[in-house]
Design a protein that fits this description.
By secondary structure, the chain is mostly helical. The protein contains two helices and no strands.
Length: 64
């Protein structure tokens, strides 16, 4: 087990994930120091970039 720091602008972080994918990584666990304060940035900025790059499928909302 280890960690890998993805740092920079939202585009920089998405690009880092793309490079990891191209190197053969097909899954990742993301950890944040202050989850409650930074989750919205992951949700609103990083994940949509990964979707546009074709690295992530859009989340589906469950119909109840």
């Amino acid at each position: 087990m280890g960690t890998f720091l993805a740092l920079g602008s939202y585009d920089d972080v998405a690009e880092t994930y793309r490079e990891l994918h191209e190197a053969g990584l097909d899954g990742i666990a993301v950890g944040m120091i202050d989850y409650a304060d930074t989750f919205d940035r992951l949700r609103d900025e990083i994940l949509p970039r990964l979707e546009r790059m074709g690295l992530r499928q859009p989340a589906r909302v469950a119909v109840t």
